[in-house]
Design goal:
Layout: H1 7-26, E1 41-42, E2 60-70, E3 78-88, E4 92-98, E5 103-109, E6 112-113, E7 115-119, E8 122-126, E9 136-145, E10 150-152, E11 159-165, E12 168-172, E13 191-192, E14 194-200, E15 205-208, E16 211-217, E17 223-228, E18 233-234, E19 240-243, E20 245-251, E21 257-263, H2 267-274, H3 277-288, E22 298-301, E23 315-318, H4 326-341, E24 347-348, H5 354-371, H6 377-395, H7 413-426, H8 428-441, E25 446-447, H9 449-460, H10 465-473
Parallel strand pairs: 1-4, 2-14, 22-23, 24-25
Antiparallel strand pairs: 2-3, 3-9, 4-8, 5-6, 5-9, 7-8, 10-11, 11-12, 13-18, 14-17, 15-19, 16-17, 20-21
Bound molecules: zinc ion.
Length: about 500
């Protein structure tokens, strides 16, 4: 955490201070800096998230990423450059990027070589000259990317980072694996648009979040693919994939462009389930209002990955999810699609707010499933209620996860149960109003647990603080409104 004691960084600071002094000395008297000009100081190495305090960075905000990948072959290192356009929110002597693994070659700030040091996942960059508060700047990081880097969690996530496939790669950045792919501000509250420029051999297709801007064949036979994310996104929701893909284009409700990205051999076997996306969109839009982005689609992962991921506008769904039963396939597809509203369009303020996005995704995937041949929704909620004290003890209350228990069942079934309780408390009509107010009011923004409590109270016209707080933070599960006969098993 306190990584600012290396001699190199001290040298950087001293240099920055010296340069400031020189600048002040040589400025003509009439242009002397006003007294309010801030003295440059280091940007914070992290945002202080309760679970991942060093994730994200302080002192600046990112306006856009440009990711250049010169992709070569599966599991093969390749040349990469990340260019970040940012603006300083304080006078900066130095700042940090989240970056893990890979081989760093050089960093420039506004074209001038910068001093760097690395410690854990923190890359500290000391520009040649300090950056004034409010000033725009450009950081360019050149590195060799290692597309075999993964990390592991002992919860629902399992392996994350780069996920190799037989003929290419997909990525699974959640929760904080984007730093293995590119340097940046790797926290869900930090959103910026991304331009992807991926060069591949001529027999591969590259895809990424958002819109294909251009596909250019080069004289050497390689192809350059440019994508624009269109909307800003959190790093944990980045998708970029390379493989022998067929891009299957169609239309959803209202002419929404749909594009599924499917390994060639899986196009036909997954076609029937993939064709259900328009129905899922229709069903969710009836409940939540308009789909929040300009396009959608499924990237079929040719991997043994156990879980799907709501990568923005292009959900990663492992092939096994689309080769089993219809009920299972639809439940998974609706889950990831629901996240486009909850977690993607309305982003997490902190990791403690994960219950909002996973709770909603689970709530709607089960509700849909019940109406389409799956299990009874109320029976599932009753079972979750029974286990809730045990989950509180093992995994923390819904809005009080601990780092190792972040993606455990409490954030899924246990948090869907909180929404079920809210619906029982305020009635279905008011609950739907709360849901719509949330996704429309916070569209394209970040929001947290307190925002949800405040909004629910406002829409319902009653103070729900006293109702929701014990559900979200208490050690004991409160009584379920409307179900006095429901019982909680004691935690053991
Ligand atoms: Zn989910």
């Amino acid at each position: 955490m306190s990584t600012n004691r290396t001699p190199r960084r001290r040298a950087g600071l001293a240099l920055a201070a010296a340069l400031t002094a020189v600048a002040a000395f040589t400025a003509p008297v009439s242009q002397a800096a006003p007294a309010t000009v801030q003295k440059p100081s280091p940007g914070a190495p992290g945002l202080g998230d309760p679970m991942f305090p060093l994730d994200g960075n302080g002192g600046y905000a990112i306006d856009r990423y440009y990711l250049d990948f010169d992709w070569q072959a599966p599991k093969t290192p390749f040349g990469a450059t990340t260019t970040i356009k940012a603006h300083a929110t304080q006078a900066l002597s130095r700042f940090n990027l989240d970056f893990g693994g890979n081989t760093l070659h050089s960093v420039t700030v506004n074209g001038a070589p910068a001093t760097t040091s690395r410690s854990g996942d923190e890359l500290t960059v000391t520009p040649k000259s300090p950056l004034a508060k409010g000033s725009s700047f450009t950081v360019k990081v050149a590195y060799t990317a290692d597309p075999t880097q993964t990390r592991h969690r002992d919860d629902a996530i399992e392996d994350y980072g780069w996920i190799p496939t037989p003929d290419g790669t997909v990525v699974y950045p959640q929760p904080n694996g984007a730093r293995l792919i590119f340097p940046g501000s790797d926290h869900p509250s930090q959103r910026a648009p991304i331009t992807f420029r991926i060069t591949t051999p001529g027999d591969r297709t590259a895809v990424a979040n958002g819109r294909l801007v251009s596909r250019t064949e080069r004289p050497d036979g390689r192809v350059r693919w440019t994508y624009d994310s269109e909307q800003p996104l959190s790093t944990q929701l980045v998708q970029l994939a390379v493989g022998k893909f067929t891009v299957v284009e169609s239309e959803g409700p209202g002419g929404l462009p749909l594009r599924d990205v499917v390994p060639d051999a899986l196009v036909e076997p997954t076609a029937a389930y993939r064709s259900l996306t328009p129905d899922h969109l229709q069903w969710l839009q009836e409940r939540l209002g308009p789909y929040p982005f300009d396009r959608y689609g499924i990237l079929v992962g040719d991997t043994d990955l156990g879980v799907a991921l709501e990568t923005q506008t292009l959900s990663l769904v492992p092939k096994a999810d689309l080769l089993g039963t219809k009920v299972d396939a639809e439940r998974n597809m609706v889950h990831e699609l629901t996240h486009q509203w909850f977690g993607d369009s309305v982003a997490l303020k902190s990791w403690s707010d994960l219950w909002v996005s996973e709770g909603h995704a689970r709530f709607y995937d089960r509700l849909y499933s019940e109406q389409h041949g799956g299990e009874n929704f109320e029976a599932l909620m009753k079972a979750a209620y029974k286990a809730h004290d045990q989950w509180r003890r093992d995994y923390g209350a819904p809005a009080e996860p601990t780092e190792p228990n972040l993606f455990k069942r409490m954030r899924y079934d246990g948090s869907a149960l909180v929404l079920y309780a809210l619906r029982e408390q305020v009635g279905d009509a008011t609950f739907q109003k709360i849901e719509r107010a949330w996704v429309s009011g916070f569209k394209g923004r970040t929001a947290g647990t307190q925002d949800f409590i405040d909004l629910a109270s406002k829409v319902a016209g009653q103070d729900l603080e006293g109702f929701l707080r014990p559900w979200l933070y208490g050690a004991k599960t409160p009584p379920m409104p409307g179900h006095p006969d429901w019982v909680v098993d004691p935690a053991t």
